[in-house]
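Standup notes
- HV: blocked on the assembly model, inputs below
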Amino acid sequence: MTRRRDALRWNGWGLADKTFDLHGRDEEVWTVVREALGMSALPSTPAVPLDAVALAEPQLDGAFLERLRALTAPERVLTSAFERALHAVGKSYYDLVRARAGELPDAPDAVVYPEGHAEVVAVLAACAEADVAVVPFGGGSSVVGGVEARRAGHAGLVTLDTTRMDRLLELDETSHTATFEAGIYGPALEAKLAERGYTLGHFPQSFEFSTLGGWIAARGAGQQSNRYGAAAKLLLGARVATPRGEWRTQPFPGSAAGPDLNHLIAGSEGCLGVITEATVKIHPLAEARDFVSFLFRSWESGTDAVRRITQAELPIATLRLSDAEETRFYGAFNAALRPSKVQEVALDALGAVGFDAPCVLMVGFEGSAASVRATWRSAFALAARAGGLYVGRGPGNRWYEHRFEMPYLRDPMLDRGVGIDTLETSTSWSNVDRLYRAVTGAIRGALEAGGHPGVVLAHISHTYLSGTSLYFTFVFPRDLDDPVGQWRAAKDAASRAISEHGGTISHHHGVGTDHAPWIGPELGALGVDVLTAAKERLDPSGIMNPGKLLPPTRA
Amino acid sequence: MTRRRDALRWNGWGLADKTFDLHGRDEEVWTVVREALGMSALPSTPAVPLDAVALAEPQLDGAFLERLRALTAPERVLTSAFERALHAVGKSYYDLVRARAGELPDAPDAVVYPEGHAEVVAVLAACAEADVAVVPFGGGSSVVGGVEARRAGHAGLVTLDTTRMDRLLELDETSHTATFEAGIYGPALEAKLAERGYTLGHFPQSFEFSTLGGWIAARGAGQQSNRYGAAAKLLLGARVATPRGEWRTQPFPGSAAGPDLNHLIAGSEGCLGVITEATVKIHPLAEARDFVSFLFRSWESGTDAVRRITQAELPIATLRLSDAEETRFYGAFNAALRPSKVQEVALDALGAVGFDAPCVLMVGFEGSAASVRATWRSAFALAARAGGLYVGRGPGNRWYEHRFEMPYLRDPMLDRGVGIDTLETSTSWSNVDRLYRAVTGAIRGALEAGGHPGVVLAHISHTYLSGTSLYFTFVFPRDLDDPVGQWRAAKDAASRAISEHGGTISHHHGVGTDHAPWIGPELGALGVDVLTAAKERLDPSGIMNPGKLLPPTRA
């Protein structure tokens, strides 16, 4: 079954009763953060309670709400302050800064929870007729403004929460495919597949609080995407509810019957319709799994190793190379959280071999025991040849064990005057260094210019024959007078650097509202025209997720 | 350099001075064909010469031709009967039947050979302004009517031959990518890559007479697609000339910046614009290559083996399973062409183990020597466990050596009253048998109903985790009174069977004119609407390749 809504944190990550476990070492950990940011003390900056949030006056009349209830069920059309606030924004830093200050830009007039494709079609038709904007909402974990409540001049605004559509409809064990309702959360989906011995293999950091439909709509990528493919590659066929009715693609393994419209559905971000069902590729559960780590003398030598391992086309599940800043920051963080003599000894040893600013590479393997063994041997040889120093299984296993917990760390940081945001891109191998330097430099420069210098961390986490993703995390002392302006300056600087230095504006977070201004430069005028044409055809009244994906002037 | 036009056969396959080599065993080979079809004799049915073809009166005036010459060059706008006939149709059975009878449905008023993207943009703008239809034409090897000259009510018709755009623009050895002008033929492309130690790995049967742009536009697939991916998967970024100017996609390795428009370009079949340049993934030349074959007792056991090998995710280059009819037909053909005592002994042995209707599976490996050895061991184990009998390297090596020559066999067949056509589809593994039976039965039934029963051969040649392609060849005594009606009856029956039994109307030949009527049922009304919207936006006057891809009423 789906998650109870009232168990969720409306203005932060995940479950309301869960926090990041600091193992009682709060003081040590916060000292590391404080010192890294050069702050003399961490201020107390708590969030306002829900009843201090001034939600916009609802604009839908009772008759329309009754109509929605008739099309679904009375208990599935909700207008409480909690539901409206929970569905007002996603989970980006920008979202949380506003929610925690009680300043939500807008909120849906109502939240509707359809059960099944037919109900979604009926709701969209009613909304189109009444000129009511619709924001499709799965787990709501977007970090780019993809689920922000924007009415854009429409007569009303409804958020359509898909999470009660969570059934497994078919599992074809011969064809290794499964058809799910698209509102199913990650853990429920994997549990249903595991019962029969399968996995989808899609494990984004948001896994516990995101849905199949959201992964596809935003073209997400999981931590084992090298092995299983990103969301767009997992998709074989979809059923989409649009304001004009059902649009579906058939799950053929390959086809030359014109363009592949699955790739128009993947990445459509709710602007063309609501993905209600999806047929996806599944894999037998891996028999074996292993994580090993290497240290490299420099970012360049690590990147070179990652490229060589990738281009050797080994069936590796995860390749994750942190730059020196990220290696150092998380090294200090982990040492504070779980101190050990071994760490000190290891760091001394590194100094002795001249690794002044080491970069850690984690390599993950999944598959048959034989394949994991063989792949590990090949990867080890390539990493060693490129100058990698083997440092065992500890860092990788620790990462794997806690890989869904990091988002819980953001809320206590925000409580202490510390900001943290992430953004990502991809580019060709020959352009990686140039883009890496441009983006880290741009973020660092913007934070410094605002008078609150921070740390900028980067890693590679999804690799391809022709290039790689680059993921950036920046941690900074919050400007308590103008937190939004501070964030926007850093975000704009990073986006400009990406756009001007050969990167895509997003590798796996999506476009949403945050990246919409950069879609024009990336796709060009005719690329935007093609998307606009598709939208106008399927959504003539423009009610689907206004303000997302397309450039602001076209939305 | 590109191929000289006058070296090409205007009404048949390939080079005018080359024919299928029968090793002087013409009588034996034709006896096999005649007996397989139950014909008492093979009639003489030669093609008419070019000067017996009544080409439609050109409709473009001299002033417009002068304008095209000014935009390109005087010697690159041609109106000779040879050029017009060569560019009137593609290379399908239906095309050749008409060309050989001197009955071409229409022909372009002129053929223009632009050199470079800017010239194509200028030509398209001029044609849009003058309401002149444009058929983009690469190698012209379409077997689905993809390059047929159709003016569809426009004031004139120009075929735009891309083959003088054949430069390698960039090779990035770090990122394993290459950017080519899209009119380059297969052999020239591979030669340019081989000079630097790389391959694209795209080897369709049409390889010698098809172009990079054509492969992408039709979503083609090569014989090693299991290893290198079909054309749509090779594409990283494209430059497209449209009537509204340049449309380009950037070659990011992965992106979540909205839908992936490369997948709208791949499969667009010249209806949205002309692909002028493409950036594609390349691979280091394989160090080793191997082909081995197995015999299976039945189609079902062979299919099961192919599925298990595929789902084991081994890096295999080619898996090609022939059904019993195809195994028998080509077995007899090869025995006539290259007789050997070994064949007779082998067939006796098979009878002895109860393989009454054996199906041959050819498995191809490419990669490092170590990977080929390891993969071969794993594949052997899986094939043997599924009941496969190892029969050595002979059949595979013979297939590889002659893999581009089979199309040359069609012309002498047509000279002798024998027809041959092919079509293909794909479906999920759980539906393979049902679709296989439906399509072979439909073709066989249609040929019988027409009074000229033939043989229907089938094979699997491109496999995926979730399913496989199915390729059908049918050979039949031509109905000399109504060859087009005979072909259409068989084609319609096959297309209906595919559409009604869970197949895609094409796995890698494309849509063209032949499959356009089946696109509506396959994509659904809203799927067709989306494509129509894209076309109307990029090609407002509807000049680009009319009659292709979209359903007839929408074209």
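- HV (later): unblocked. The mean pLDDT of chain A is 95. Chain A has 19 helices and 18 strands.
- Next: hand off to the docking folks.
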